[in-house]
Design a protein that fits this description.
By secondary structure, the protein is of the alpha+beta class. The protein has 4 domains: 2-116, no CATH class; 120-256, PAS domain (Beta-Lactamase); 262-333, Helix Hairpins; 344-522, Histidine kinase-like ATPase, C-terminal domain (Heat Shock Protein 90). The protein has helices at 2-12, 19-40, 51-72, 75-84, 87-96, 102-115, 118-121, 133-141, 145-155, 176-182, 186-189, 194-197, 202-210, 258-305, 309-333, 348-362, 384-401, 454-464, and strands spanning 161-165, 171-174, 220-226, 232-241, 250-256, 344-347, 368-374, 379-382, 407-414, 421-426, 468-474, 478-484. The strands form 3 sheets. A 5-stranded antiparallel sheet has the order 2-1-5-4-3. Strands 7-9-10-12-11 form a 5-stranded mixed sheet, covered by helices on one side. Strands 6-8 form a two-stranded antiparallel sheet. Strand 11 and strand 12 (478-484) form a beta hairpin. Helix 4 (75-84) packs parallel to helix 6 (102-115). It is elongated, with a radius of gyration of 37 Å. The N and C termini lie far apart (101 Å).
Length: 523
């Protein structure tokens, strides 16, 4: 057959006006032959893909520019396009780049067919799209629906957000996870500049682009991102090159790591508390025995000597400071000594109302306006004594924060789909954001005579109930603490000092009994 076709071509070449038609037919048939070989031998992975380069070279030599154009539109190009699923982008490159040479264009086509990502190629607009919204809109309107659906199938199910950014910082593509994490629509994301959407990512991307991606692609960054609605999340992301010849594109993969960061902080805090707890067991015995002897000696001296008034005041000071130190040790032991939680189905509104009545009678909130918003019939499985300690500590902290000036203290109890909640809110001076990470640390306090154990113990009680405590504060506005009980609480019991492993469920233990006093009097 081959010899027969050769003889036929020789005969037809004698006809002058058929020469060009024969050359075009030869290009078409060569491309068809290569396409058949490629399809029969693993498609885009076939070694015969290189034959397309020979077809384009032969066409360029025979018919010059028109021949190269014909080769690019022959079945060979169609096969490459079918392998890469990005036909519109490849043909646009070949049509819009005549000055770069058709050989270079064909090489780019082959490179993209063999190794490009269909998800990113299918939605890659011109670098001018960020600067010219009208042109971007027209280009988007020409993007085929099948290409868009292919992109979504490839990146949609991924839990990580994926952004494709071109060399001028324009976002070419964002998957569904990216839009969910950033809480932004597709129309606002695609075609916008990276520095406008996620400003904190722009410096890392710029550094990699300026270094032409010579830095390791595995480099990871973390940044805060303020979403619509006011909530701020922690984002971990990495930047990798997505380059085709002279173009520089970037692939940014990111995830919401807020919960992971919180867990790391909880583990670190629990390990610090574990060290404190182990130290506390030996400290109590070594300190309380001398304190008891000292107080007993003072009582004997007071009874035997009948000292004058100025000496009596000094003895009272010694006794008072000894009692304060004993109370500090009691709180200290609360972070290490186990206590069985006696859970009861409790009406939270009645429980909180009881504590508020005691607070009003105590006189600590004489200058405050107390607002109660207690929804009746909200129940939870709690230890009433321990939870009263928690509420008492929170309202006392709020009252002390507003001491010396009028203020409003709002205490709420509500139910809902997310579970019962107790919320204590004040309009005090607030807490500096830099200090929020330390408020649950033992011995950290901003009070003149505070022990720094109140909130640490409060948090340990809440976590021992399987609940969570959210601390929100803004300087000059006030502070709000929300305790949320899950719909299915799992209380945490322990019989030894906490460890880092246990900290995943909670960061500390619970309080010991406090004798015959009201349970919250220890605060």
């Amino acid at each position: 057959m081959t010899y027969g076709l050769t003889v036929l071509y020789l005969a037809l070449l004698r006809v002058q006006h058929l020469v060009k038609i024969l050359a075009q037919s030869q290009i078409f048939l060569d491309g068809l032959l290569v396409t058949i070989l490629v399809v029969m031998t693993q498609g885009s992975e076939s070694p015969f893909v290189f034959g397309y380069v020979l077809v384009v070279l032969a066409a360029s030599i025979t018919l010059y520019r028109s021949g190269a154009l014909l080769a690019a539109r022959s079945p060979s190009s169609c096969s490459v396009v079918s392998c890469s699923r990005s036909s519109s982008v490849l043909l646009v490159h070949c049509r819009s780049s005549p000055r770069r040479g058709w050989v270079k264009c064909c090489s780019r086509t082959l490179d993209r067919a063999a190794g490009s990502s269909p998800s990113l190629s299918s939605r890659a607009p011109s670098p001018r799209s960020c600067a010219r919204p009208d042109e971007s809109s027209r280009r988007k309107s020409r993007t085929s629906s099948s290409s868009a659906s292919s992109t979504r199938r490839s990146c949609g199910p991924s839990p990580a957000g994926v952004l494709s950014v071109d060399d001028i910082g324009c976002i070419r593509f964002g998957n569904d996870a990216a839009m969910q994490i950033l809480k932004i629509s597709e129309s606002e994301l695609v075609g916008s500049r990276l520095e406008d959407v996620v400003p904190a990512m722009a410096p890392a991307w710029s550094r990699f682009r300026d270094a032409r991606f010579r830095e390791p692609a595995v480099s990871r960054f973390e940044t805060d991102y303020a979403r619509r609605g006011g909530d701020t999340i922690r984002i971990g992301f990495s930047v990798a090159p997505l380059a085709f010849l002279s173009e520089l594109s970037a692939l940014i993969v990111f995830q919401d790591v807020t919960d992971i960061v919180r867990l790391k902080d909880a583990v670190a805090r629990s390990e610090r508390l574990a060290s404190v707890g182990q130290f506390a067991a030996g400290l109590a015995h070594e300190v309380r025995n001398p304190l008891a002897s000292m107080c007993a000696s003072i009582d004997v001296l007071r009874a035997a000597l009948a000292p004058p008034e100025h000496l009596t005041r000094l003895m009272d000071n010694i006794t008072r400071e000894a009692e304060r130190l004993n109370g500090l040790i009691t709180d200290f032991l609360a972070l290490a000594r186990p206590r069985e939680i006696a859970l009861q189905r409790t009406d939270l509104a009645l429980m909180v109302d009881e504590v508020l009545n005691l607070f009003e009678n105590d006189g600590a909130g004489a200058d405050l306006r107390l607002v109660r918003d207690l929804s009746p019939g909200v129940h939870a499985e709690v230890d009433p004594d321990l939870m009263k300690q928690v509420v008492w500590n929170l309202i006392r902290n709020s009252a002390e924060a507003m001491r010396g000036r009028p203020g409003t203290l709002v205490v709420e109890v509500h139910g809902g789909d997310g579970g019962p909640t107790i919320r204590v809110e004040d309009d005090g001076p607030g807490v500096d954001p830099a200090l929020l990470q330390k408020i649950f640390d033992p011995f950290y306090t901003t009070k003149d005579r505070g022990s720094g154990l109140g909130l640490a113990i409060t948090n340990s009680i809440v976590e021992a109930h399987g609940a969570t405590m959210l601390f929100e504060s803004e300087v000059g506005v006030g502070t709000a603490v929300t305790i949320r009980f899950g719909l299915s609480q799992v209380p945490v019991r322990r019989s030894s000092p906490p460890t880092a492993v246990e900290a995943i469920a909670r960061s500390t233990g619970s309080l010991p009994p406090t004798g015959g006093e009201a349970p919250w009097a220890a605060f």
